[in-house]
Specification:
Structural class: alpha/beta
Bound molecules: 3-methylbut-3-enyl trihydrogen diphosphate, magnesium ion
Strand content: 15-25%
CATH class: Alpha Beta
Largest sheet: 6 strands, parallel
Oligomer: single chain
Number of domains: 1
CATH architecture: 3-Layer(aba) Sandwich
Order of helices and strands: EHHEHEHEHHEEH
Shape: globular
Strand order of the largest sheet: 3-4-2-1-5-6
Radius of gyration: 18 Å
Helix content: 40-55%
Distance between the termini: 29 Å
Number of strands: 6
Length: 239
């Protein structure tokens, strides 16, 4: 493991957890076997983020485009999500981790929506780490839903059009008052964003790893943060 600079830990890390299907295929198993084995990698990522002092960890679990997958895979993913909520929420609470599900949850079953609400309520005062799980999330959807909220406020005279600024707009994204993404990691070797956080990654450092998600561990996370710490972020300025 590479020694990290404790004064330069990314505040917000976002991860596109990709490669479950390929991982399963390598062992001649069904894709869902890969998803099931991805849960362990989620645990390792959450625990390592908390350990090194990351404040917000956002994991891309299901995109708004993932409904295009075979029905069988989608429903297996939903079941897995429910099971994970049932099994992990108490542990999150015990570890002082706040859980937020970000995405259009209205398309989920009533039962799942209820579980989500309960889990969020149980952990809402936790302060060690905020864990955002992006489920039925799309970066474009996020921007559109913010615009709708603002339009509604202008229509109701709660806000003037000129009060729509980058700052107020940002506060209406699902990440609300959280810091913007400092480090974006994608596993599986693909180098694209796939409609993940769009606004929030404007100045994120990008890190693409070849490891397939079920194999992702502390060593990989550590390497990504170490790489982040080598970068010179300029935000458009000079050094
Ligand atoms: C990521 O793994 C998990 C989800 C999108 C739910 P994939 O299922 O995309 O795995 P690959 O990319 O097909 O290997
Ligand atoms: C992005 O992965 C979504 C998640 C990891 C949840 P995909 O596997 O769906 O993305 P594409 O299709 O390769 O762009
Ligand atoms: Mg994929």
């Amino acid at each position: 493991m590479i020694e990290l600079d404790k004064n330069n830990i990314p505040e917000h890390v976002a991860i596109i957890m990709d490669g479950n299907g390929r991982w399963a295929k390598q062992q001649n198993k069904l894709r869902i076997f890969g998803h099931t084995n991805g849960v362990g990698a989620v645990r390792r990522a959450v625990s390592y983020a908390r350990q090194i002092g990351v404040k917000v960890l956002t994991l891309y679990a299901f995109s708004s485009e993932n409904w295009n997958r075979p029905e069988q895979e989608v429903s297996a993913l939903m079941t897995l999500f429910m099971q994970a909520l049932d099994r992990e929420v108490k542990k999150l609470h015990k570890n002082n981790i706040r859980l937020k599900i970000i995405g259009d949850t209205s398309r989920f079953s009533a039962k799942l929506q209820e579980k989500i609400a309960k889990a969020e309520m149980l952990t809402e005062n936790s302060t060690a780490l905020t864990l955002n799980i992006a489920a039925n999330y799309g970066g474009r959807w996020d921007i559109v839903q913010a615009a709708q909220q603002l339009a509604e406020k202008v229509k109701n005279h709660e806000m003037a059009p000129e009060e729509i600024t980058e700052q107020t707009f940002q506060q209406h994204l699902v990440t609300q008052h959280q810091p913007l993404v400092d480090l974006l990691i994608r596993t599986s070797g693909e180098q694209r964003i796939s409609n993940f956080l769009l606004w929030q990654i404007a100045y994120a450092e990008l890190c693409f790893l070849d490891v397939l998600w079920p194999d992702f561990g502390e060593k990989d996370f550590n390497r990504a943060v170490a790489s982040y710490q080598q970068r010179h972020r300029r935000f458009g300025g000079t050094e």
